[in-house]
Amino acid sequence: MADARISLEQVLHVAKLARLTLSEQEAREMQEQLDAILRYMEGLDTLDVSEVPPTFHSIPMLAPLRPDVPARCSDRSEILAQAPDSQWGGFAVPLVLEVE
Amino acid sequence: MPDFPWQSAFEIREQVVSGAASAVDMARAYLHRAEALNSTLRCFLTLDYEGALASAAQVDRARRDGKDLGPLAGVPVALKDNLCTRGLRTTCASKILEGYVPPYDAHVVDALRAAGAIILGKTNLDEFAMGSSNENSAFGNVHNPWDLNRAPGGSSGGSACATAAGLTALALGSDTGGSVRQPAAFCGITAIKPTYGRVSRYGLVAFASSLDQVGPMARSVREAAQLLEVIAGHDPRDATSAERETGAYLAACDRGVRGLRIGVVRDLLEGLQDVDVRSAVEAALGALEKAGAVLVDVSLPHADHAVSVYYLIATAEASSNLARFDGIRYGLRVQGEDLAETYTKTRAQGFGPEVRRRIMLGTYALSAGYYDAFYLKAQRVRTLIRRDYDAAFERCDVVCTPTTPTAAFALGEKTSDPLQMYLADIFTLPPSLAGVAALSTPCGRSRDGLPIGLQLVAPPFEEERLCTVAQAVEDTSGLGDAHPAALA
Q1: Inter-chain residue contact B379 with A55, CB threshold 8 Å
Q2: What is the mean pLDDT of chain B?
Q3: Element (H or E) spanning A13, and its range?
Q4: Is B434 in contact with A58 (Cβ distance < 8 A)?
Q5: Helix B49-64 crosses helix B23-41 at what angle (to 10 degrees)?
Q6: Active-site residue among B80, B122, B193, B414?
Q7: Are residues B430 and B320 part of one domain?
Q8: Judgement on whether residues B180 and B320 belong to the same structural domain of the protein
Q9: Among B466, B453, B469, which Cα is nearest to B187's?
Q10: Residues 6 or more apart in contact with residue B258 via CB below 8 angstroms
Q11: B79 within 8 A of B109, measured Cβ to Cβ
Q12: What pLDDT score was predicted for residue B232?
């Protein structure tokens, strides 16, 4: 795909950022589909919005504050029961640091 | 139970409250029907016999004890499976959450329980609510009860199907870009996408947090209005929950449309390719005018850009929200050599193709060098779409369009081309981006006998107006009590 809006290298880079693995076949398919979508989205370039402020939230609201009242939090064992692996009252994960 | 299963929520409550039927018998009847038809329709992912019958027994006990019964006492409700239910598995139709059992109830679930509703089970959806046909479910697609070869719509396809087919009286869905309205249109029922902030999102598994809203689905406008009254209201557990008084939605159904100004987006209507949709919408507009409403022309000049804007903003937010599914705290884990490989393997195997595609698009739109060109630009165009509505609402009280460009499309028709699937959302996306209130209600049938939906849009927090106009549409549509024939 010579004039693709997104290169295969970019697809693989984005997959890495998103913590996804794609096979070669999947990456190529993804490139094709994203290319079609990004081409369609070029329609946005017909609008000059340089002076238009962005709308990050449709309904204007301020971050609300609540009274600082102690309350019971969720039960630890109930939460850990949903974890694929837990040990000593915490989530267990594969080794992060090398052990000599 | 004379009109089972098509009796309304009000009739069910009346029978339960008067003692003519017990809530337990009622729940059992719907559970049996749901179980019998689910192999054909596949709209439920989980049926909760135990929980439903326990809640029903509680309602019956409260009645015998002479206690006040809630507005939905004994009424069966189905929940989209992205609403957390304590002790009942909540999968989002994703392999990554296949065995997940939430330790808490969503706000709307609390509200339903307090109102005496009976939660029958959890309904199928497009994985993480991403899709317009329910074909992105990891656990099989749902069938449209009006024609089993057609899509029920999405992403709340299971909730729409279960309601239309009489497997439940009421259902809740969630709507990010049309996910209660579009399946409601395809299945011939009514659904409301409340104003952003009207209903708490606490316990709704997040897809795109600036757009997500929980919405009621029902076979009549009045029932949808009643359900909205139950679930709406401020909840301090959702920081975006509005501190607004809940409206009198049920009462609003009886106000009548005399003098109300209905905005007609003329160029959109004239550009419709599907003549069945166009004539159904025109007939509904004619009936509203006859009932005393005033039709005025309005325009939404930037609505055409909604698909681009939505699929940049929603995917960007999704890519961030779905980062939490990493195989550590809940759901699936596919063990790798190290932590990083565990993340990637879990996510590659746990997410289906559409979810992966949206995470990719969203990650790309937010990534260094592309943020301004894609994400920020989309947010600026979103402002233009919002201003279109501001201008329209200076001229009218409610904007009226079709809900979808066509009636239900065939299963498999759009699955190979994601962009074509996205374009099916063209009419439901603009109100979502603007954050305004919207509703879909049946307004006619195609030549093939498929339902066609009318979309009504009102300014923020004006859901009452939607109920008023939708009731007039229901009263004049002549659709009566028709139900999917295949399932009688």
Answers
A1: yes
A2: 96
A3: helix A8-17
A4: yes
A5: 160
A6: B80
A7: no
A8: no
A9: B453
A10: B291, B292, B293
A11: yes
A12: 98
Q: How many Å separate Cα B249 from the centre of its chain?
A: 17
Pair B458, B465: CB distance under 8 Å: yes
Mean pLDDT calculated for residue range B418-437: 96
Residues 187-246 of B with CB under 8 A from A: 195-197, 210-211, 236, 239-240, 242-243
pLDDT value at B431 more than 90: yes
List CB contacts (< 8 A) between A84 and chain B.
327-328, 330-333
Chain A interface mutation, best of B311, B364, B423, highest count of A Cβ atoms under 10 Å: B364
At B330-351, the pLDDT tens digits run 999 999 989 999 999 999 999 9
Helix (H) or strand (E) holding A30: helix A24-41
ipTM above 0.90, yes or no: yes
Q: Are residues B132 and B230 in the same domain?
A: yes
CA pseudo-torsion sign B127, B131, B135, B141: positive
Q: What are B235-289's pLDDT values in tens digits?
A: 999 999 999 999 999 999 999 999 999 999 999 999 999 999 999 999 999 999 9
Point out which residues pair with A86 in neighbouring strands. A91
Residue at a domain's end among B377, B409, B424: B377
- Identify which of B197, B302, B337 has the shortest CB distance to residue A59: B197
pLDDT tens digit sequence for B105-160: 999 999 999 999 999 999 999 999 999 999 999 999 999 999 999 999 999 999 99
Question: Nearest CA of chain A to the CA of B71: how many Å?
Answer: 30
Tell me which residues of chain B, numbers 142 to 171, contact chain A at a CB-CB cutoff of 8 Å.
none
Query: How confident is the model at residue B352, as a pLDDT?
Result: 97
Q: What is the CATH number of domain A8-44?
A: 1.10.20
Model pLDDT for residues B213-223, shown as the tens digit of each residue: 999 999 999 99
What is the number of domains present in chain B?
2
Give the SS3 label for residue A4.
Answer: coil
Whether the pLDDT of residue B488 is over 60: the answer is: no
* Parent domain of B344: 304-377
How far off is chain A from B203, nearest CA to CA, in Å? Answer: 14
Hey, which residues 81-140 in chain B have their CB within 8 Å of chain A?
A: 100-101, 103-104
